[in-house]
Amino acid sequence: ARAGTLVRPDNWEEDEWQDLTEGRIGEWAMALDADEPVAICHTPAWNAQAAEAGVWTRPDFRGRGLAPAVVVAWARRERANKQVLFYSTWNDNPESQAVARKLALTPLGWLWTVT
Q1: CA atoms within 13 A on the CB side of 50
Q2: Long-range contacts for 5-11 (Cβ within 8 Å, ≥24 apart)?
Q3: Per-residue pLDDT reduced to its tens digit, 47-77
Q4: E strand or H helix at 102, and its extent?
Q5: Residue 18 and residue 16: Cα distance in Å, rounded?
Q6: How much is the pTM?
Q7: CA-to-CA distance for 101 and 62, rounded, in angstroms?
Protein backbone atom coordinates (compact mmCIF):
# COMPACT_ATOMS: atom_id res chain seq x y z
CA ALA A 1 0.00 0.00 0.00
CA ARG A 2 2.84 2.40 0.76
CA ALA A 3 4.20 2.05 -2.79
CA GLY A 4 1.28 4.14 -4.05
CA THR A 5 2.40 7.09 -1.92
CA LEU A 6 6.01 7.18 -3.11
CA VAL A 7 7.33 10.05 -5.21
CA ARG A 8 7.83 8.89 -8.81
CA PRO A 9 11.41 9.49 -10.04
CA ASP A 10 11.61 11.66 -13.17
CA ASN A 11 13.11 8.82 -15.22
CA TRP A 12 9.93 6.72 -14.87
CA GLU A 13 6.84 7.42 -16.99
CA GLU A 14 3.60 7.57 -15.00
CA ASP A 15 2.15 4.37 -16.51
CA GLU A 16 5.44 2.47 -16.00
CA TRP A 17 5.61 3.64 -12.39
CA GLN A 18 2.07 2.50 -11.72
CA ASP A 19 2.79 -0.88 -13.33
CA LEU A 20 5.89 -1.22 -11.15
CA THR A 21 4.37 -0.18 -7.83
CA GLU A 22 1.26 -2.27 -8.41
CA GLY A 23 3.38 -5.35 -9.17
CA ARG A 24 2.32 -5.86 -12.78
CA ILE A 25 5.87 -5.99 -14.14
CA GLY A 26 7.54 -8.30 -11.67
CA GLU A 27 9.22 -8.03 -8.33
CA TRP A 28 11.00 -4.88 -7.18
CA ALA A 29 12.90 -3.48 -4.20
CA MET A 30 13.68 0.14 -3.29
CA ALA A 31 15.84 2.15 -0.94
CA LEU A 32 13.98 5.25 0.23
CA ASP A 33 14.78 8.68 1.59
CA ALA A 34 11.44 9.56 3.24
CA ASP A 35 8.94 8.99 0.39
CA GLU A 36 11.51 9.31 -2.40
CA PRO A 37 13.09 6.25 -4.00
CA VAL A 38 16.85 6.68 -4.21
CA ALA A 39 17.68 3.19 -5.53
CA ILE A 40 15.43 0.74 -7.35
CA CYS A 41 15.92 -2.82 -8.55
CA HIS A 42 13.12 -4.07 -10.78
CA THR A 43 12.38 -6.76 -13.37
CA PRO A 44 12.70 -5.30 -16.90
CA ALA A 45 12.74 -8.71 -18.63
CA TRP A 46 11.44 -12.11 -17.62
CA ASN A 47 9.90 -15.37 -18.73
CA ALA A 48 8.50 -18.37 -16.85
CA GLN A 49 11.94 -19.51 -15.64
CA ALA A 50 14.18 -16.43 -15.57
CA ALA A 51 14.26 -12.76 -14.62
CA GLU A 52 16.71 -9.92 -15.17
CA ALA A 53 17.58 -7.30 -12.58
CA GLY A 54 17.39 -3.67 -13.67
CA VAL A 55 18.98 -1.14 -11.30
CA TRP A 56 18.82 2.64 -10.96
CA THR A 57 20.33 4.82 -8.25
CA ARG A 58 19.71 8.54 -7.96
CA PRO A 59 22.99 10.32 -8.78
CA ASP A 60 23.35 12.02 -5.39
CA PHE A 61 23.04 8.64 -3.62
CA ARG A 62 25.53 6.69 -5.75
CA GLY A 63 28.59 5.13 -4.13
CA ARG A 64 26.78 4.32 -0.87
CA GLY A 65 26.16 0.61 -1.48
CA LEU A 66 22.46 1.02 -2.20
CA ALA A 67 22.50 -0.68 -5.62
CA PRO A 68 23.89 -3.98 -4.29
CA ALA A 69 21.44 -3.81 -1.37
CA VAL A 70 18.37 -3.43 -3.58
CA VAL A 71 19.62 -6.15 -5.96
CA VAL A 72 19.92 -8.57 -3.02
CA ALA A 73 16.44 -7.63 -1.77
CA TRP A 74 15.00 -8.04 -5.29
CA ALA A 75 16.72 -11.43 -5.70
CA ARG A 76 15.27 -12.71 -2.44
CA ARG A 77 11.77 -11.86 -3.66
CA GLU A 78 12.24 -13.00 -7.27
CA ARG A 79 13.92 -16.27 -6.28
CA ALA A 80 10.52 -17.52 -5.08
CA ASN A 81 9.19 -17.22 -8.66
CA LYS A 82 12.16 -17.89 -10.97
CA GLN A 83 14.89 -20.50 -11.32
CA VAL A 84 17.46 -18.21 -12.98
CA LEU A 85 18.27 -14.60 -12.13
CA PHE A 86 20.44 -12.32 -14.30
CA TYR A 87 22.24 -9.05 -13.72
CA SER A 88 23.34 -7.41 -16.98
CA THR A 89 26.00 -4.75 -17.35
CA TRP A 90 27.89 -3.00 -20.15
CA ASN A 91 31.62 -2.46 -20.73
CA ASP A 92 31.13 1.31 -20.56
CA ASN A 93 29.34 1.21 -17.18
CA PRO A 94 32.01 0.75 -14.49
CA GLU A 95 29.55 1.55 -11.71
CA SER A 96 27.29 -1.32 -12.76
CA GLN A 97 30.29 -3.63 -13.08
CA ALA A 98 31.29 -2.63 -9.53
CA VAL A 99 27.85 -3.76 -8.31
CA ALA A 100 28.38 -7.14 -10.00
CA ARG A 101 31.84 -7.47 -8.41
CA LYS A 102 30.55 -6.49 -4.96
CA LEU A 103 27.86 -9.17 -5.23
CA ALA A 104 30.49 -11.69 -6.46
CA LEU A 105 28.36 -12.51 -9.52
CA THR A 106 29.73 -14.99 -12.02
CA PRO A 107 30.21 -13.63 -15.56
CA LEU A 108 28.06 -15.60 -17.94
CA GLY A 109 28.75 -14.29 -21.43
CA TRP A 110 28.88 -11.42 -23.87
CA LEU A 111 26.25 -9.98 -26.19
CA TRP A 112 27.45 -9.16 -29.68
CA THR A 113 25.62 -7.30 -32.40
CA VAL A 114 26.31 -8.01 -36.04
CA THR A 115 25.41 -5.19 -38.43
Answers
A1: 7
A2: 5/35, 6/30, 6/32, 6/35, 6/36, 6/37, 7/35, 7/36, 7/37, 9/36, 9/37, 9/40, 9/56, 9/58, 11/56
A3: 999 999 999 999 999 999 999 999 999 999 9
A4: helix 94-102
A5: 5
A6: 0.90
A7: 16
